[in-house]
Each structure stands twice: as structure tokens, then as C-alpha cells.
Amino acid sequence: MAEAMKLEELRFGTELLKRGFASMQKGGVIMDVVNADQARTAEEAGAVAVMALERVPADIRKYGGVARMADPARVREIIDAVSIPVMAKVRIGHFVEAQVLETLGVDMIDESEVLTPADEQYHIDKTKFTVPFVCGARDLGEALRRIDEGAAMIRTKGEAGTGNVVEAVRHMRNIMGEIRNLQGKSSQELVDRARAIQAPAALVAECAKLGRLPVVNFSAGGIATPSDAALMMQLGADGVFVGSGIFLSGDPQKMARAIVEAVHHFNDPKVIAEASRNLGEPMKGLDIHLLKENEVLQTRGR
Amino acid sequence: MGVRIGILAFQGDVSEHIAAFRGALHTGKLEGEVFAVRTPEDVRECDALAFPGGESTTIQRMMEKTGIRSRLMDFSGGIFATCAGMVLIARRVEDDARIQPLDLMDITVRRNAFGRQRESFEADLQIRGLDSPYHAVFIRAPLVTAAGTGTEVLSTMDQHIVAVRDGLHMAFAFHPELTPDPRLHLLFLQGLV
């Protein structure tokens, strides 16, 4: 029979483990929650993970001020409530908040523009951590810069807390379109393109070869209905984050289940129609064009 | 026509499983096709089924919604299950009422047995049937805490069971679909033909 393994022969926190974790989330819905009850509702509805937060993005907008990492007590309460992975957000560049979340046992850290940035020059060096990171991006250059810093997963940014899917669509189309445009280019042309979008040439070449990002790519920022979620899946997302759209809707439990259903059957309008019946009021939502410049979250972190 | 391998495609690393089986068929010069399984009708087309990694609570919910559960419980072909898949095909899940497993294999499993993501690891394992170590990737992995008398233990770690076989069925706590080594897939396919 096999010999016993020694602990020192194990390897932790590798790129493969980080990206592998993200792969296990594919085809799933990751839901923002602010307490243990919401986390349990999300798990029962079929969420693949929950995002532990102090406030959902729409409430962050309303509340104003500096938005920071959630209280560790709150994160711990959510970790103890569910068996699915728990993610949590840190401010862009705030590597100490990330160290704290890693210590708490958070499974993936979201370096997020939804919180107030702590560093306007640098993102976190994510290679220094054992736990994987997910980062937001609006275009291919931004996505590849984050991957180069060690992000194991990308989410298109959209515009969080608006309940308006228009920016999520724009960013997903951007990235998918830019990757399609790489197909058939010579290696010299790819290097040229890499310079233009300020991304590492090796990662640009990898995208051209794979026909997709080298890591899992979810959609986020404005998904408020089952149809929104299925729309993002049909546009090529590997899964979706839903922030304010669930727990600020009229019937969170029903909405959570319906969005999970729509993501799993994103190509089947009959199932989406059935899941969308009588969900009550979705979150109210905001017109992107009425946001003032300082209210736009997606421009934080480049 | 060869062997027909269906990958249960509700959630998780489905595309990795499809690629790994296609690669193994190619390497082993075996005839066969690999496709995604989403409905009870799809199950009928399969000689073997793969249960991928992912979140077992999510996959379970989808199995119930689609009515595929009873069809899976009656499935008589080969089964290749990894991580969350191993949890779902078990007879019993320890201390966790969230999962009602399918009882396709006489094993008892413990979910997230090694801890959280920061405790996920890679290790070289000795596996019965392979003549050199296999590089295994464990991600929030489960463990087999008890195996029935008919169940062959293929690999252990610190006395914990991490790979098992029973007839046409094989289950792994780790993810053979995430590494380029096709030997475990080939071992499974050779058992089928």
C-alpha cells in the first residue's frame, strides 16, 4: 500500500491551486451577503460562494464616506454559517486588509473598486499570498495587468450597486472582442498590441492561443434579474457575481434561486421565463448617465 | 463507435474534464466520444459518467431541479468522480445534512476535510496500479473516512483514504483533470473496455 505522506512534501498556495479554485466556481453564482442568515439563504439557493460584506454596493453608495474591509467578526460569522467558499473584499492596494482576511480563513480575496482605494498607484502583489485573488477589469489590458500581478480570476467590473447591466455588458463585450481581434495576428503584431494595451506580451500571446483569458472570467456590477445573469453567460461569462440584486429585491430567497436557475440554463429561454415569474420587485436601480463623475466606481484602479 | 463518456455539466470544472478525457482517449489510442450531460435523457447515451469538481451543494440542487437524480441512482455504467463528485456519489456524508448523496459507491466521506482554501495543496501520491508517483491537486478536498469491504483503496495520505475503486467506479479526493498526466483516466478507460 501507499506510503504515508510527510507534511513538508506538500505545496501550498501555488498558481495551479489558485486557478484551480477559480475553475471550481465556473457555471456558478457568487452572492453578496452581509450576515449569516443571508449567507445561509444564498447557500440553500445554490450559490457556489458568498461574498462577505459590511454593506452591499447600493448601500455603500447611499451611505457614502470611506468604504473599507468588513468587520472580522462579521466575516467569521459568515464563514461559520456555510460550507461553501467565502470571499471578502479589500480596498485596492490595501495588502494589510488582505493579510487580515487570509488569516481569518477567507477562501478568495476580491481586490475591489467597490471599496475606497487605498493606493492609487499600485495594486496588491497577489503572488505573496496563499489564498487566491479575484480582480475587476473593464478591458483586456486591465485584466492582463491584474493576472500579471497574480490574480487567479477576473470579473468584469460593470457598475456596482446600480442594478443596471449596461456597463457589465460593455466590459464583457470589450474583453471578448479584444481577444477575438488577437486571433490570426503574427507574433510581432501581438507584441505591438501588448504595448498598446500596456499588458505583458506573454499574456497577450497566451490569450491569442487560447481564444480566451488564461483564468476564469466572471461578470459583475449591475446584474439584477435572471435574464441579466443569462445575458452575461450568453456573452461569454464563466459565471456571475450578484451584489445588491438579490438581498435588495422584494423576495431575496426567490430571486437567489431564480438567478442560479437562469445561470445553469442560460441558453434555455423557457427555463429563464419560468424562473422569472412572480419574483416581486427587483432592486430599483440607477441610470448610469445620471451618475456624477465621483460616483462612478469602475474607474478606480487601472 | 467506442466508449461514450458523459460529463455531468451542471457546475464546476466541466471543460477540464472534457479536455482530460479527450486527451486520454487520444493518448491511449482508444475509440470514443466525450460530451456534456444535462438532462435525464442524456444519461441513457452514456457508457460512463464523470462527476466533476465544483460545489456539491450547488450541483445537488441542480440535480434535483432537472429530475436527473433518480436516473443517476440507477446508472449502471462506469463512474469517474473527483472532489465534489466523490461527495455526491458516496453512500454517506459525515456530519453534514446539506448533502443527500446518491449512494453509488460504498464510501463515507467528510467534506472540506483538510480545511479551507489556504490549506489546499499539491502532493505526489503513490497510487495502486501506477508504477511511479502521481502529482495530485487537492482543493478544499474531501476525504474517505470509511470504505466498504468491496471497495479497493487506491491511495492514502497519512492513513487517510484519497482514492478508491469499486468495479467500474473510481473516485478521487483530488483533481486528475487539472494536471496533464492522463494515467488515471487511462486506468479508468481500460477498466471499461
Strand content of chain B: 25-35%
Give the termini separation of chain B.
Answer: 12 Å
Radius of gyration of chain B: 15 Å
The description of the largest β-sheet of chain A is:
8 strands, parallel
Total tally of structural domains of chain B: 1
Tally of individual helices of chain A? 13
Q: Outline the low-pLDDT stretches of chain B.
A: none
The second-level CATH architecture of chain B is 3-Layer(aba) Sandwich
Topology:
The complex is a heterodimer of chains A (302) and B (193).
Chain A: E1 11-12, H1 15-23, E2 29-33, H2 36-45, E3 49-52, H3 57-63, H4 72-81, E4 86-91, H5 95-104, E5 108-112, E6 133-137, H6 140-148, E7 153-156, H7 166-182, H8 187-196, H9 201-210, E8 216-219, H10 226-234, E9 240-242, H11 244-247, H12 252-264, H13 269-276
Parallel strand pairs in A: 2-3, 2-9, 3-4, 4-5, 5-6, 6-7, 7-8
Chain B: E1 3-8, H1 14-27, E2 32-37, H2 40-44, E3 48-51, H3 56-66, H4 69-73, E4 78-82, H5 84-89, E5 92-93, E6 107-110, E7 121-125, E8 134-138, E9 143-147, E10 152-157, E11 160-166, E12 169-172, H6 183-192
3D architecture notes:
The complex is a heterodimer of chains A (302) and B (193). Chain A is of the alpha/beta class. In chain A, 42% of the residues lie in helices and 13% in strands. Chain A has an eight-stranded parallel sheet with strand order 8-7-6-5-4-3-2-9. The model of chain A has no long low-confidence stretch (mean pLDDT 95). The longest helix of chain B has 14 residues, at 14-27. In chain B, helix 1 (14-27) crosses helix 6. In chain B, the strands form three sheets. In chain B, strands 2-1-3-4-12-11-10 form a seven-stranded mixed sheet. The A-B interface holds A 1-5, 9-14, 16-17, 20-21, 23-28, 43, 45-49, 83-85, 102, 105, 107-108, 130-132, 260-261, 264 and B 9-16, 53-55, 57-58, 61-62, 65, 83-84, 96, 98, 111-112, 115-128, 137, 139-140, 153, 155-159, 175, 178-179.
